[in-house]
């Protein structure tokens, strides 16, 4: 919806800056004005036969254009808080809806009894793997000593055989002994590698257990205000169930407003918006932060977000309204009752030479019961206030000049 300030009010403000005439001159001016306006109208009313009709003198006025929107209070951005640990019971709740929380703050804790048992089992497995590694290392050391002895025996045999001091058969036995020692060394090294791998496996399992243990402390991933809590003591947590907490990031809220399709294109990002909550509080001034690029499929309504100041204690989902300023323009504005048919061929009825005439018009902005006339009416035309009456074109009528509702300038 839109609002405007009548040009007549602007003229009166400008005239207020001029020197004030004397009381005598003011009385003379009023007498001349009555002589020029009221007396001829009374004479017409006395001399012309026909029904009386209320008319409005078309005058140019300044339109302060604005769009009135309604919507609900929403969080600007939200963080969903859940747990990746399924099957554990919630044992304590440390935060409630409405609380301000910092990043990393504990919101709830889960039962750790099963994970504690797994930690104990892992400790035992780590000790066993360490013992196996020690045994394998000792076996490797023995195998390497045996290999060194076999190599020394073989070298001595190779020196004695050419001198006839040792038989060829003895040499072959020493060669086979060295081969067996080498095989034993390789097997011992593999046993050591297997024991080391077992230790790494146990360590990785411990990291997994510790990670799941950390999941038992449900913490806030971002700072903000808790706007929803479904977590309950005794309930079983699950990563696939409803979010345990919802946080409004940085305690920032906005008015998510719906905009009619006819006014959607004229609302820019950054436009000044005067927001009023439906709790009798004073309004606040903000700006349009975001305008959705598309209309809703079913309602054909646009969507805009108006930022609200930090710390605003308005409940999520509360109704609010805002008047978005989109500029001003000058033109002739008539009450909607003066328009005949606001569809494809709208028209007005004017009184010219005390006879009714019908004139087609081009309509513009509509607000608070008034419609902008872009073309089809001239300043000074006497427009029938209620065009839907019984008078038709060509009929004679007596004009009764009435005032248009100047409260439109206040956006009422």
TrEMBL record:
InterPro entries assigned: MdtA-like_BSH, RND_pump_MFP
Pfam families membership: BSH_RND
Record-stated family: Belongs to the membrane fusion protein (MFP) (TC 8.A.1) family.
Region described as Disordered: 1-22
Residue ranges constituting the Multidrug resistance protein MdtA-like barrel-sandwich hybrid domain according to the UniProt record: 89-246
Protein known as: Efflux RND transporter periplasmic adaptor subunit
Highest taxon of the lineage: Bacteria
